[in-house]
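Wait, can you check?
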Amino acid sequence: MTDAQVADAAQRRRALAVDESFIVQAPAGSGKTELLTQRYLRLLAEVAHPEEIYAITFTRKAAAEMRNRVLAALEAANSQQQPTQPHRRLTWDLARAVLARDEALDWQIIRNPNRLRIQTFDSLSHALARQMPLLSELGAAPGTSDHTDPLNRAAARATLQLLEDPQLGRHIERLLVHLDNRQALLEDLLCHMLARREQWLGHVLLAPDGQRLDDALEAAVGEHLQQLAQTSRADWLQALIDLARQAAGNLPPASDNRALAAWRDCDRAPGTAWQDLLAWQGLAQLLLTRGGELRRQWQADIGFPPPSEKGLAAEEKARRASAKAAIKALCEVLAEQPETLALWAGLRLLPGAGLDTQQQAVLVSLFRVLLHAATELQLVFQAEGSVDFAEIQLRAQRALGSAEEPTDLALAIDYRLQHLLVDEFQDTSSSQYHLLATLTAGWEPGDGRTLFAVGDPMQSIYRFREAEVGLYLAARELGIGQLRPTPLTLEVNFRSTRGIVDWVNTSFRSVFPPRVDISRGAVPYAPAVAHHPSIDDDAVQVHAFAGDAEQAEAALVVDLVRAALRENDTGQVAVLARARSHLQAIAAALQAAGLRFQAVDVDPLAQQAVVRDLHALTRALLHPADRLSWLVTLRAPWLGLSLEDLLIIAEANAHCIPARLRSAEVRSTLSVDGRRRVERLLQVLDDQIPARGRRALRPWIEGVWLRLGGLAVAGARRMADAQAYLALLEAHEQAGGIGDFAELEAALGRLYATPDHQADGRIQLMTMHKAKGLEFDTVILPGLGRRARGNPSSLLYWLERTSHDGTTHLLMAPIRAADQESEPISDYLRELDRDKDQLETARLLYVAATRAKRRLHLLGHIGVTARGLARRPVAGCLLDRLWPAVEPHFNGLQPPTAAPADPEPPRLAPLQRLAADWQPVLDAEIAPALTSPPLDDQRSGIEFTWAGDTARHVGTLVHRHLERIASQGIDDWLPDRVATLSDPVRRGLQHLGVESDQLDLATAKTLRALRQTLADDTGRWILRAHRDARCEWPLTLHDDVARHYVIDRSFVDDQGVRWIIDYKTGEHLAGDREAFLDQEQARYREQLETYGRILRLLEDRPIRLALYFPLFPDWRVWDYPT
């Protein structure tokens, strides 16, 4: 397809005009990143210095991708011939022009890529704040943290301790009285507000008396009334007013219906000021019920007495009947105008007045307390040497000053900065938008400086990160400051087939609102044009279910995944859900079907068995009186005491569990097996308890865990999860312990298990939010009929609202009192927030659907009631938003006829545990136990450098890095690169508990093993890409007990032979090498041949076994007996 055949080619060419500013709407699959790259190259060919161009993105990944694209284009233009594809040829030509500019001005960009100013908003803010440390008050560069809840809480508590302060104390007292003295509630409120202070701090500083709140509320009500007046047809509105006068005249003189009674003496359309609201609400009574639905009946209480009333004159009867017919006709017209209908329905929630005196006083006190808490937070930041990203944004803005009073830094940047490019502009927050406005203050059309903002408002889905799509809409319609960027819209979708593009175009027109509304963040749908002309009638499939169908959907997902993999043996399949919980049944079904997948940020780390057991061990060791944690530790697979033995140990007694374990009398009552297990535990504790306080918490806990057999139980596959937990311990350690377990557990709750790195990545499970920016051959959207968890009720409702003129205002409701269930302003703000959420839900569904390249499957259900199938999905679910497009697929769906079978009683899983006499010095053997990854060369009689844990930890690190090298690709690894691993290896050995006097030797040995493997032809052949290659391959053999094994490396070679290779990090120092290898082969023959026996059950092919020794390097190979 030539450039001329691309539907939006003219828009794309226009976007490269370097003397104009543009704001570009780039829908899904439209090649946004390539256009940004081309614009950047075009500018580079014009400027005097590369530093005159700033490109800003939202994530480090996006910044790295753009930087790499620019450099790759320059390198390709420097070494390759001109491409034939039009878009690639254009990039090549632009890059050639940059190379000519580079040579003329001696930039040497390829050698000095740091001259390219491509960075994130956060890194830009960091740089700005650091350049003016005194003005920004940043000082020396602090650390930045995503999770500063403990810091916010510390500031809140420090503030509340000032209750006796003569100035601040009266404000704290007023708040506590208002909340019925619930100090914890006030503390939580302060923490929540501090975390989002960039949204309110500027507004509060400008008006700490709260006066602007009423002004903002009045403006919001006025805008609503203006929209209603503009969208209501004049003749229709006048007819409604005439009926309102008639209805008001029918009310009794003492009627308490003030809104409708106000129309007795009015005959013209009401104004749009706040005081006119009551009149509009009176009109709305004639159209809508209290629930906001169109009326079907009109009674005397709203001025429509029945025409059938006895004793009426014929003329009066006719008048009444005519009025009812007229109002019915008006409602029928309104039913055809959903946007106008929504405005009328919204009248019932508009507050009739602002804050009363008491509410105003409480909010003023809140502002005073918040301002002080923000000051306390600065002291906490200073003490901790860490700030949050909001603070960096605020201080960057402080370093720049304002458009009216710019700082020296702002003037210097204004002189240097000529062109600004912004990616994902639809996701800017108000503080980021303000930063952009400050950077471009004073820019005018034609002065040589340009702004190029690219985004897609239809993909704005990050309100929870403070993104405000209304700012994009305002900039597109009104500009930024004095700049008026030219709006451009891309149309072509290069990602999806025509079948998917056509379906999305047809379906989402009714899902999105019909027109732009800046204050609501309403974005109309912009249709796309498919670049791929092929049509597939099955490109989009809707799978309808009746009733709760979680298991049925999961089973269908398995079938769809298998079909997709058969159809395209290199394609990727993504299962995208609105919530992580919607993926749990699917993950279980895929596992049961033997389909390995990568779950990206889906499985909570705290729910992983290895982490639960480690956490219980940590609590038990730090708190001997924690009975529950001790019992969990005793039951964990590394000890695995029976329930009978646990009952004996847990018998009601004044002594704590450790004391009970040390009692010879108690141990004598245990089973023989239980006694042996407890004695092994005591042996480990006797060795390790004295180290408490002398070793850091992480290596101490890890040392106990390893000696008990934690790694043997977890296996290499779960090692990353264990390390994540141990790193968390390290971060929360205080004086050898944990200061606040609640904080540790809160931090743990924010982490997710590591994806299965042994999966080939062709099947991925993730949330729809996580899929933003990605694409897959087949996309499956399950659980569309399930509702997401609702937002809990809040003590204080507030939001930052973008007006139709592009300015932002703070709307804040009064704090609800202890005995107050509802409040008009709170109800209004809650409805505004709900409306924004609903609009974003439509955009989220669009993002999910447009990830698909070839196939899109939508799975959803409608409920079953006592009367049969529900008429439509539950409100708030994604299927409800998509209902107009998918309803035909549910027609004819029958409710399930068979009563659900009684669920089988849960069966207890067999107890999995290490052998009672398990010892960490033993290598992986064939034993009725859960075995660890190979713990090499630990037996006596074999020569090695040193014995014990250190050798084992070296083996662990070597295995880990060999797995990483094989996964990343051997071509990226030369022996010299191993030197870059020195610090990570050293840290890894420290974390595993290697003593300081052995650390240098252990690090050197680990690096030597890796270096020699990479320098060895055999080692490189083992690690290179092969068919069906696996690293750290876990296998389970079910005999009388479950036996678990891990194969270090396995693959199928070009001759169809299955290789099973085990790494051994033992080192032969003297004597006959061949004799040593023979001895090692004899030692491990049974182990490897057991691996071979398991794989023979899985596949029928020749099997070859090998031991590879990275420290020689050498190997021993033999065939598995047929």
